[in-house]
């Protein structure tokens, strides 16, 4: 009975009989398999791509950026005292303002400049020991004299090509370099990095240094025998007062995290989306299997009556769903291979082509295996009803329920009929009453629709809300960026105080500008595990910066505000005290507030007061008045003050988050598309089966005098009510718990964001998207029920 041949014949026969239902079910499984496999493959390719880049480029395990003079002997002494240091170097860099960089294409006459870039443009020569910049082939790039390698990010943004000319404006004559290619930078590939590197030959670097116009900067870099010890080395480094510290300190963990953030979000969103679709598929499978068993219960009873074992009967049904699942996994896996190639194209350009290995094949296979196992476990669970089915009940009553369950159902139906009197309703109220009564009587069956639309609305709204948050100006103030139209950054130089005075005078005299604030970056020392450690603080009036605080408020006299990572590092909360040492004098400050920050690696602090002479840098913020264009004003001030970096605030946030929004935007749109497709499939699948199951009931209503229009209206009303209920529940859940879900995931990433306030586009998230979802489901309902107009009521009463 259970031979493979018989099972195959049954599967073919059943699939031909109910093509529409099984096509919809297979399509749903294919979508789930596609997302599951794609998410797993993108994650595997991302890890492999970054690992391959890191293996060749060998980025530092710990680095300290610095501007100004430093003592090489102190660095030598520090390295000698720490045997865990495998190698170290000091990379000299020249920071050139983007306005001083332009490009030309001789063949077409196309040209442009890099003035819109908010990143520091650092010219370097190739390192000899580690931290290499790699060309497009993955080899260590070696430019010849007169050549330059630009970052891959600039190639993608400005559509640059090898052979173009890069012109560097200096205080002497312009330096013209030919673009030889584009480099992958393991250390500064992310847009969330504040700088990017240009690779030139040693003699061009020296020529640029002699010509003037570029600010000197250094990176002190360390490779360790054990990269996990980077945090310990950082604490020891910061505890040494003789070492250079005028800049950000970064560990290998933060470098890897920033590199993986954009595409990592893509992989996570795909996997979560696949889990949602898997739940939807499982719910629908359960509905389909139970419906099939109810439709064929007399056949099952006959088979049981002639002695066929329940396991053999279950095997027939299980074989069909095994076949559907296998087809879905093959199709979904094949589509995932194509999608992964498209989704990882930018990743391979920025990092490296990930090697193909055992895990490349094993990862999607395991992901599809999880999907298949989940589906088949559910099928086996539902098919247990075959074992529990009474032969007499199946043949006589045509039900899978036991005698006790049938009696209980009859009592409930009688009680319901007594509670509601049909005579009390007139006109259209009768149809509404019958539809409502039917929904209550068949609640278990109709529950599928609101559950599915609840999940689909979450799948549609949550990714788009997260994307809107990343693109929102409010997001900037929640991660440490100021709420300002203009940002002026002054890095350490011999003329920094004069430049600050000139920029301030210009802004304060400009009627187009108001609310000018100045913050100075200074260094303080605080007690750490190995003595006094360096703490970067911003000194000034923080009341008007728009900074949002997780706890507490902006610091006043005798107070300090800490970033979330610093508060965690020093185990402090609001109200605690923190000793501060500056120029040999020790004072105590009370922690007034804790805020989120992803700048300066997340380890920052804020102090009130007037800046002292010799600050490491200045940040000047201002707002424009009237209809003044901040971008045009920023360009004007850039021309007036070439040594200052003047940036449009909105452009700054957009470029900083572009690494995330560019990758995540495609996935958010994909989630919307998939939610709509699944809504159409599920509406069609459910209503096809439900209408078939309710034909006898519709025939009775027709015999009682109800018209086709009224019967169809009842079906549509039930479907619309279920769709609207599920969608609105999903909207409410997303509004109430979505922030908690997303915030927890982002906090676990360790970026210094412990709490994320979602900023959805309200008209879209809670208006347009739910309306589109409801419309899609209802249109399918209208199309399917329209076919009932041509049916004869007598056919509804036939079994």
From TrEMBL:
InterPro entries reported for this sequence: ABC3_permease_C, Membrane_comp_ABC_pdt
Regions crossing the membrane: 21-43, 265-289, 321-344, 356-379, 446-467, 667-689, 719-742, 762-784
One Pfam family from the record: FtsX
Chief localization: membrane
GO CC, alphabetical: plasma membrane
Keywords linked to the UniProt accession: Cell membrane, Membrane, Transmembrane, Transmembrane helix
Location(s) in or outside the cell: Cell membrane
Membrane topology category: Multi-pass membrane protein
Domain ABC3 transporter permease C-terminal: 273-377, 670-785
Superkingdom to which the source organism belongs: Bacteria
Protein name according to UniProt: ABC transporter permease
């Amino acid at each position: 009975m259970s031979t493979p041949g018989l099972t195959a014949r049954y599967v073919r026969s059943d699939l031909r009989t109910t093509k529409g239902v099984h096509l919809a079910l297979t399509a749903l499984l294919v979508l789930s398999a596609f997302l599951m496999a794609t998410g797993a493959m993108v994650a595997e390719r991302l890890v492999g791509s970054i690992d391959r880049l890191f293996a060749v480029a060998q980025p530092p395990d710990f680095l300290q950026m610095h501007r100004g003079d430093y003592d090489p002997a102190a660095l030598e002494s520090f390295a000698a005292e720490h045997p865990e240091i495998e190698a170290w170097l000091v990379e000299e860099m020249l920071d050139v303002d983007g306005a001083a960089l332009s490009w030309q294409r001789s063949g077409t006459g196309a040209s442009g400049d890099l003035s819109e870039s908010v990143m520091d443009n650092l010219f370097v020569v190739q390192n000899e020991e580690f931290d290499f910049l790699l060309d497009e082939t993955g080899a260590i790039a070696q430019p010849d004299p007169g050549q330059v390698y630009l970052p891959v990010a600039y190639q993608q943004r400005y559509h640059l090509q090898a052979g173009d000319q890069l012109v560097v404006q200096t205080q002497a004559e312009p330096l013209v370099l030919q673009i030889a290619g584009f480099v992958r930078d393991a250390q500064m590939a992310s847009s969330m990095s504040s700088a990017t590197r240009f690779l030139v030959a040693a003699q061009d670097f020296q020529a640029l240094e002699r010509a003037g116009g570029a600010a000197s900067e250094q990176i002190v870099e360390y490779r360790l025998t054990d990269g996990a010890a980077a945090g310990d080395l950082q604490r020891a480094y910061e505890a040494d007062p003789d070492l250079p510290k005028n800049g950000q300190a970064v560990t290998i963990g933060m470098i890897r995290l920033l590199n993986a953030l954009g595409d990592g979000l893509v992989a996570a969103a795909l996997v979560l989306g696949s889990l949602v679709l898997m739940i939807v598929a499982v719910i629908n499978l359960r509905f389909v299997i139970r419906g099939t068993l109810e439709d064929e219960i007399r056949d099952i009873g006959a088979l049981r009556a002639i002695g066929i074992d329940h396991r053999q009967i279950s095997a027939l049904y299980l074989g069909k769903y095994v076949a559907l699942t296998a087809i879905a996994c093959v199709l979904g896996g094949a589509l995932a291979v194509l999608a992964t190639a498209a989704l990882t194209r930018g990743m391979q350009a920025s990092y490296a082509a990930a090697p193909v290995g055992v895990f490349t094949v094993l990862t999607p296979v395991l992901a599809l295996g999880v999907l298949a196992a989940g589906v088949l476990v559910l099928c086996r669970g539902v098919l247990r009803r075959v074992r529990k089915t009474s032969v007499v009940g199946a043949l006589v009553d045509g039900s899978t329920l036991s005698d006790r369950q049938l009696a209980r159902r009859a009592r409930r139906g009688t009680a319901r009929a007594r509670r509601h009197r049909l005579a009390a309703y007139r006109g259209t109220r009768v149809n509404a009453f019958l539809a409502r009564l039917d929904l209550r009587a068949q609640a278990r069956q109709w529950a599928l629709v609101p559950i599915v639309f609840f999940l689909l609305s979450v799948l549609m709204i949550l990714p788009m809300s997260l994307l809107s948050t990343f693109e929102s100006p409010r997001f900037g103030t929640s991660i440490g960026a100021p709420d300002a139209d203009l940002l002026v950054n002054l890095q350490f130089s011999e003329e920094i105080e004069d430049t600050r005075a000139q920029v301030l005078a210009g802004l304060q005299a400009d009627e187009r500008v108001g609310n000018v604030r100045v913050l100075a970056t200074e260094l303080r020392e605080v007690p750490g595990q190995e003595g006094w450690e360096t703490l970067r603080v911003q000194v000034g009036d923080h009341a008007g910066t728009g900074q949002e605080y997780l706890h507490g408020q902006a610091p006043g006299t005798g107070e300090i505000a800490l970033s979330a990572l610093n508060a965690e590092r020093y185990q402090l909360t609001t109200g605690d005290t923190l000793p501060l040492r500056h120029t040999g004098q020790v004072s105590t400050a009370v922690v007034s507030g804790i805020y989120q920050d992803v700048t300066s690696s997340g380890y920052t602090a804020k102090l009130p007061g007037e800046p002292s002479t010799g600050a490491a840098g200045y940040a000047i913020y201002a707002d424009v008045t009237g209809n003044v264009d901040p971008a045009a004003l920023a360009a004007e001030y850039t021309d007036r003050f070439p040594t200052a970096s003047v940036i449009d605030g909105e452009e700054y946030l957009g470029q900083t988050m572009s690494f995330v929004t560019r990758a995540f935007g495609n996935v958010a749109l994909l989630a919307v598309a998939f939610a709509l497709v699944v809504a159409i499939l599920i509406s069609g699948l459910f209503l096809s089966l439900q209408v078939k199951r309710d034909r006898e009931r519709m025939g009775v209503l027709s015999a009682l005098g109800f018209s086709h229009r009224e019967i169809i209206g009842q079906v549509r009303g039930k479907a619309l009510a279920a769709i609207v209920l599920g969608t609105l529940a999903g909207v409410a859940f997303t509004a109430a718990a979505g922030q908690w879900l997303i915030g927890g995931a982002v906090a676990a990433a360790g970026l210094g964001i412990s709490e994320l306030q979602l900023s959805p586009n309200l008209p879209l998230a809670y208006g347009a998207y739910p309306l589109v979802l409801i419309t899609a489901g209802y249109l399918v309902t209208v199309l399917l029920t329209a076919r009932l107009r041509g049916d004869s009521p007598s056919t509804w009463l036939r079994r």
